[in-house]
Q: What sequence folds into this?
DNA sequence: ACGAATGGAGAACGATCGTTCTCCGCTTGG
DNA sequence: CCAAGCGGAGAACGATCGTTCTCCATTCGT
């Protein structure tokens, strides 16, 4: 879920990782060296490369030189696009949050009935888990790695999970649960657990297991105003 | 992030848990400096300090000097006890696995009925989450931080989760689930999710939420040989 | 076309970290 | 009391990393 070229018309699905073939880019310069590129293009490529590398290898394991190589920009350009590695890490997490939430929302939006909307969450997870470069949740990983030493990273991770929790709360309320907060929390546990289990290969078919569990909890919690489904 | 966070994570900023609390009995000499200590005592203190620091701050964020200070041993002693940081990390994970599993087993062993044994798992989690220094699962954290770059760490994390999954499988079978593997996976998702949610403060009362969800799943899955409980 | 500005390439710098080495005091055996 | 050795304290070393600086080719305004 990392690399996408600048010209992708996404179909609301989790895109697969394409290798770093940045041959023909939007820059017209046909230099054999690193082409002279536009400022916005540089920012895009840097964030793209950083996202792919940070996610794949962990944040501390990736050096700025490595990002420079993958992005195909100069170190000077890198630092005038993002003034520090910390800033780049924050941009990485923010961008990741936006893409992930958008993808989740699109999946959920396709379903109308509350039950189907909950199912869609885990369908999204199943699709995500199937991507070639899947390596768990960027925010759980970043939080575990830098949470205690970097308040911004901890805040970004909490904000991401808060957004997820809020969406699940909406779904739980739509489903007419007697205690929407309780159901939302339980769905959150299933989502987080599925992500972790998928990343570590612990459970078999974690998304499907989580989905069936969610449906069971949904049925158990359906005690007030079941608005269809 | 190196230059900035260097100030916040200063050496010796850990608590006053120093050498003098241990060496009163095993080492008779009351030296004012670091006492001359036994080899086994050194190993114990080193592993103790490493466990506390690695867990609290992350593995890469803790230097060997910091471990030396916290353990109250010399660097020479440190390296002749554990030949490298990698070895110390492995020992840390192994020790933590043993302690955690033992604590879980003890909690579960106190209950006889299958339902109570499942409940005991989440009672154990609740107790753990309430500890002052709780910071999530060492293995999830280590896996997220070093999984892609350190095969031993990845293997240790997978082994830990495999052990947990096996125990949950036993509980699921004892509970007479129609599909014990499915229930075990679902319980695993709840446990992992609760740990992550507790670490990040996402859900309210994650252990209790997970326990009620587990009981609901247990009831839903109880379709063969309900061995009275 | 020429001076100035821009940007790429990468060396350089300072800090940190894992690991080893040196120095010296203390202990111990005779 | 002395020689030998063990162990603590910490300097030193090499590698890495984040960040800055230097050098030079290219580009652009006029």
A:
């Amino acid at each position: 879920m990392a690399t996408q070229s600048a010209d992708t018309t996404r179909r609301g699905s989790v895109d697969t990782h394409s290798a770093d073939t940045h041959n023909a880019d939007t820059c017209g310069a046909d230099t054999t060296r690193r082409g002279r590129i536009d400022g916005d293009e540089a920012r895009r490529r840097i964030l793209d490369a950083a996202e792919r590398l940070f996610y794949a290898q962990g944040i501390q394991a990736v050096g700025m030189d490595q990002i420079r190589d993958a992005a195909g920009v100069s170190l000077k350009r890198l630092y005038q696009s993002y003034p520090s590695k910390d800033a780049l890490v924050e941009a990485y997490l923010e961008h990741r949050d936006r893409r992930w939430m958008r993808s989740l929302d699109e999946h959920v939006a396709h379903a109308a009935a509350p039950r189907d909307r909950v199912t869609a969450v885990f369908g999204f997870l199943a699709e995500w888990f199937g991507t070639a470069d899947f390596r768990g949740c960027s925010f759980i990983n970043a939080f575990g790695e830098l949470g205690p030493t970097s308040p911004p990273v901890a805040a970004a991770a909490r904000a991401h999970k808060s957004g997820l929790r809020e969406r699940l709360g909406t779904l739980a309320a739509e489903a007419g649960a007697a205690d929407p907060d309780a159901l939302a929390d339980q769905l959150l546990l299933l989502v987080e657990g599925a992500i972790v289990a998928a990343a570590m290969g612990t459970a078999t078919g974690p998304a499907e297991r989580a989905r069936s569990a969610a449906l069971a909890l949904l049925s158990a919690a359906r005690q007030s105003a079941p608005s269809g489904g």
Remarks:
- Chain B touches chain A through 57 residues (CB under 8 Å).
- Residues 2-3, 6, 36, 63-65, 75-76, 79, 84-85 of chain B lie near DNA strand C (CB under 10 Å from a C1').
- Confidence is low (pLDDT under 50) at residues 1-33, 225-229 of chain B.
- The two ends of chain B are 54 Å apart (CA to CA).
